[in-house]
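Hi D.,

Good news: the full-assembly prediction came through. Inputs first.
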Amino acid sequence: MLKAIQILGSSSFGFVSLPCRFKRKPQANCDLYFLSRKPIKASNLSSLRSKASSFAFRIRSHIHSDSNPYGASSSSSTSTPVQSTGIRKINFCQSCGGRTKHEIPDGEEKMRAICTSCGKIIYENPKMVVGCLIEHENKILLCKRKIHPSFGLWTLPAGYMEIGESAAEGAIRETWEEANAEVEVLSPFAHLDIPLIGQTYIIFLAKLKRPHFSPGPESSDCQLFALNDIPFDSLAFSSMLVTLQLYIEDTKVGRPMFHYGIINKRPGTSPSEIHAYTLDHHLKS
Amino acid sequence: MLKAIQILGSSSFGFVSLPCRFKRKPQANCDLYFLSRKPIKASNLSSLRSKASSFAFRIRSHIHSDSNPYGASSSSSTSTPVQSTGIRKINFCQSCGGRTKHEIPDGEEKMRAICTSCGKIIYENPKMVVGCLIEHENKILLCKRKIHPSFGLWTLPAGYMEIGESAAEGAIRETWEEANAEVEVLSPFAHLDIPLIGQTYIIFLAKLKRPHFSPGPESSDCQLFALNDIPFDSLAFSSMLVTLQLYIEDTKVGRPMFHYGIINKRPGTSPSEIHAYTLDHHLKS
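Then the structure:
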């Protein structure tokens, strides 16, 4: 099994507790919450343009001053995604080894790491996490995590997308690694941004090519769950909670859609409170 | 205007010329080519698992030995995407400044840069390019590039997604920067992976909030084009060609869908031959 992806440390930004808590059988008010549509409106473009900058600065400052509550070191690797930030402290230039300074380059508006030796500006970009939502005989395949963070909690098979592969290929690969399951991707299902931690989740609907699966090295268990039995109180990540909830909503109306949304988490609560978020700018196709 | 995004140098992998060349009015055989559906099938998972590794290795070797045909230095920055690779030569650790070695870490299957000082494994991930397809009075807004690469060619407003923003926010920001246009995102339209260069294009349908636009600092012109007048022979990137073609196809059947696809480019031709690709694993929602 590949251990191909970094854990860069989960932050302790935490999330805000919301009144709607998912039980095994989601309630109607929760459904409304998930399916609100708020199209993006750039009513204040100046604010929008500076938002990424201030977010990145806040995240960077926070990460550098915080210990990692999950204990994952920066050199750890796993193919299982964590809802952590991809933002690292950049002290040196990867090309020439020169020391970096952190300032706003000429002609830009955002703080960047700049090499004091070769002048290179070092940019950082969000990371994509790719995974599969597999329905088999009206049940969904979930994996129980055997690694930190979220040890012992359930997730869809997913992991960081690698250079050289497509999102669909990455989702198939991760499913093989985490659940020893060979799948065929059927359609794109969800694109969920989590700006605060610099991650984008890309989830595909998929089907088992053979009805065989078993825990991979990072899973202690793999099980098929009926929609009414999904362990919403024991899921590993907000992104998986949102994905499963959207899927359940779609089954009620007859067919899966494609969903775009932004998962906004807020400071003040523990990262383990995966229900503490808002799903904003939810759009469907 | 922000100049927020890196050009890491366009490679000269080149692409294979295909018999289907787009003219101003796409031909029927081109349409068929674009709309073929090939669901992902992992008939050989072993091959799939090693694909990303071999691709990354091939790209890395190539990039390091090639000059940049567009002349963009590694320290250049622009908010306009280029179809270049995000894969860089990693000689030093960004955290401690130690020299790196390149080998397959224990428990992994892929070549990685590993710090010889602190032991950190340095991972690289694909980058997201986000942009808007804006229809206004049955015409599409395009920007003429005033910068290299693809100087003088037309593109949808788009650029690299930044840490701290969502894909939709990034697409709105880039449209403001490149076309001085305030837009509202309406729906997700396309997710196009280009594995060979480590990029994923995320394109939204959007509308002008006001009928005002003008060239930003990186554009020499902005124009609305009727669908029959889109300059298919003067587009900047394959991703934009595919996006516009899919949109035209959708208008023929009445409504826009959400499209997933993989743009596979092949060695042997010039990067300027944007028609030289295949669109594989095209899925719709």
